[in-house]
Each structure stands twice: as C-alpha cells, then as structure tokens.
Amino acid sequence: MATSTAPFATIRQRNLLSGGLALTLAAVPAVLWTYLFSLVAGLLFSARFFGQWDALLSHSLAAQSLTSAFDIGTLGSGYLRLSEHVPGGNPPFFGGALVFAVVYFLLVPGTLFCYAAPAPARLSTLFAQGVAHFWRFVRITLLTLIVGGVLLGPMSALNGYVAARIDDHIVGRPAFVLDCIGYVILFLAASLVRLYFDLVEVYTVQLGLHVLPGGRSDRRVRLTLRPAWRTMTRFLGSAWLSFLLLSILGALAMAIATRFTVDSLAQPRVWPAFVVFQMGMLVMIFTRFWQRGAETVLARNQPLASPASPARSAYVPRSTGVAAPPAVPEAVEVAPSAAPGMADPAPREDSL
Fold first, then answer.
1. Separate counts of helices (H) and strands (E) for the chain
2. Does the pLDDT value for residue 116 go beyond 60?
3. Average pLDDT over residues 175-189
4. pLDDT tier at 146 (50, 70, 90 boundaries)?
5. DSSP conformational letter for 325
6. Listed range (44-58, 78-92, 208-222) with the worst mean pLDDT
7. Which residues contact 214 (CB under 8 A, 6 or more apart)?
C-alpha cells in the first residue's frame, strides 16, 4: 500500500491563528467577493421592502418619533402593519437567504480549495471548485442540521424550561446571571457542532485533491467524518479556543458597528452609519474566513491517509494548476507525532 502523497502532507505544523491569518490574507479576493455578493443580494431583495416601508411611514404621525431618536416600538408596529395590511408586503427575506445560501455553497468550497491546494483565489477558480463541491457541501449542511437538531434541540428546550423556573423563583441580577449561564452553555455546544462540521468540510476538500484511477475525485463525505472527529478531539483545546476567539472578535466588531448605526439613524446624513455598518460586516466575514484558514492548518497537520485497498489502487494527487512542493522521503510522511490512523502507510479498508 502506498502512503498519502498529497501536497498538504508535507506542511510543517504552525500556530493555528497565525497560519490561518496567512491563508486568509493570501485569499483576500475570496473574502471581498463574498462580501460583495452578500451586499448586492441584500440590496436587491430589500429594495421593495424599504419602498413599501417608506410609503407607510410617509402617511403616519407615528413616524415623527423616528426623526429625533430610534424607536424600536414604532419600527416593530410598522413592520407588523406592513406584513398584515399591505398586499404582498412581506419582505422577501427568504429570497435573499436563498441567494446567500447558493453563494455560500459556491464561494466557501472554492476558498477552502485555494487554502488547501494552494491556488490563487480567482473568481473563476472559486466558482469552478464551488460547482465541483456543491452537492457535497449540501449533504454536509443537511447532516449538520440533523445532528444540530438532535443535540441542540433538547438542550434548547431544557434551557427554556430552566429559564422559566428561574423567572418563577428568582428575580434581579441573580436571575439574569443564571439565564446567561444557560445561554453560554448552549452557545458552547453549538460552537462544537459547528467546529466539527467545519473540519468535515475541510477534509472533504482535502479528499477531493486526489482522484481515483478512473479520473474521478472521491466524493464520499462519510470518509471524512471519523478523521474530523479524531482531529477535533485530539486538538480540542487549541482548535476550540481559536474558533471561539475569532467568533467573539467578529461578533464584537458587528456589535460595535450596529450600536453606532442605531445611534446614528436619526442623523440627517446616513452614509456614515452605512459605511460603519458595512465595515463591521466585512470584519465579521473576514474573521469567519480566518476560522476556516485555522481549520485548514489543523487539517494539514493531520492529513487524510490514502484509503487504498487490495481492490483499489492508491490515489493519485489531483492537478491543482500550481507547482507541487518538493518530494519528501517516505519516512518523513509517517511521523510518530501523526494522529493514530491519520497517516498509516497501510490503513485497513474500514479505518475511515
């Protein structure tokens, strides 16, 4: 049996945050294209809604409260009235969400390919690899929803029950602290689910860098489930800490931008609020791609073994359009520090 000869198998171990940042900066066009498509989709699908909103507020005395301050009550009542009494007035948020999902399934696989190959983050490359991995990522997303629902659904229901009991027996700051603890636990569980399936996506792209003897790339997502679990559990501390740190950084940037935007809604000029909000959105998208870069570095440190078997020859590295790194002796690929089962020169057929 031959060992894995993928280009990512020879990458030295690096710090997840610095290595992920380097990959993200090398693929900045992917971040900018994602932001641009998200902005265009948001503007297109919200234009009709804001036109109807303007027509409603132009004939309402309640709209005067918005000229000097930000009134959530006025906005909420206006939204309800618009959705109930204006024919066809429901904002087409579902259409925008659908377009964003399609863009996600195209750009994210392409970005992960550029991270793993590595390859230049051209728009043509992003879309070509996105189309190639589209249905694989759809299957991963469906699996994420199923697992997330099974694990997080009962936890969410239990958290709601406990929060109701707390409200019945405790008031004031202690009740608020206990409620926050419940939501933090729920968030941490959700972040673990997200981290695991992020690694599944990274390993799926990594597996696609090899082709079967017939010329097809391996599209079996199930081969990446166990390696992703092994990698996450072995490096849980560093991987989870990096994921949480970048999530908090992106959320903090978005919260600051949102707060500034809310405080500036009653100002005569709205463009500063628009610019600040878009900057916050761009930072949040950048931190998300930074997370993907850190996860790619982790997957490079623990590469997939070639799933060779007596009935199937060893895989051949897929051409990525870039120069391959220098060859390394076989002994280097089977390092003692590798994860068990991740780089075994003679893996069993059922090891993955």
1. 10, 2
2. yes
3. 93
4. very high
5. P
6. 78-92
7. none
Residue-level pLDDT at 343: 45
Q: Cα–Cα distance between 293 and 34 in angstroms, integer?
A: 15
Tell me the sheet residues that pair with 210. Answer: 317
Task: Answer left, alpha or beta for residue 88, where phi above 0 means left and psi between -120 and 50 means alpha.
Answer: left
What's the chain's Rg over C-alpha atoms? 24
Element spanning 114, H or E: helix 93-116
Closest CA to 113 of 38, 210, 212: 210
Residues 71-110 as b or e (16 or more Cβ within 10 Å = b): beebbeebeeebeeeeeebebeeeebeebbeebbbbbbbb
Please check whether residue 68 is in contact with residue 97, taking contact to mean a CB–CB distance below 8 angstroms. Answer: no
SS3 149: helix
Task: Please name the residues in contact with 134: beta carbons below 8 A apart, sequence gap of 6 or more.
Answer: 105, 106, 109
| The pLDDT of residue 94 | 62
- What residue segments make up the domains of the chain, in order of their start? 7-58+90-333
Phi-psi label, residue 330: left if phi above 0, alpha if psi -120 to 50, beta otherwise: alpha
Whole-number Å distance between alpha carbons of 48 and 277: 21
Confidence (pLDDT) at 101? 80
Q: Which amino acid is present at 9?
A: A
**Distances, alpha carbon 252 to alpha carbons 245, 258, 291, in Å:** 10, 10, 15
